[in-house]
Amino acid sequence: MAHRKVSRNAPCPCGSGKKYKQCCIRKDFEWLEDDDGNILKSTPISDEMSDLLDEQRQAFIAKHGREPGPDDPVFPDMPHFEHAEHQMIEAMKKAGIDPAIIHATEKTGRLVTEDNQHFLSDMEINEWNAAIEEYKAEHGSRQPPELGHGSHTRLTEAKIKAAIQHPEEEVRLTALRYFYDSYTVDESVMPLVIQAVETYGVETSFSILRHAERLPQTDQTVDWLITELHRDDLDLEDVRHDNYRFAIGLVICKANPSLVAKRHRDVTETPLFPAELSKSFEEVCQAASWDWDRTWQEFLVFNRKLSRKRKWSQGDHHRVHRLIRLLARHPNGENQVLALLQRHGHGIDPGLAEWIDPYVVDLAGFMRLEAAIPHIIERAQLAEPEVADQCGDALGRIGTDAVAKAIASDWDCGDYDFQNIMTSALKKIHTDFCARLCLEFLHVERYSEVSLELGNAVLSHFLTEGIPPVRQLVMGDDDDLVPDQHDLRSRLVATATIMGATFPEYDAWHDDAVKTDYGWHDYEPMRIAENFG
Question: What is the pTM of this model?
Answer without folding.
Answer: 0.72
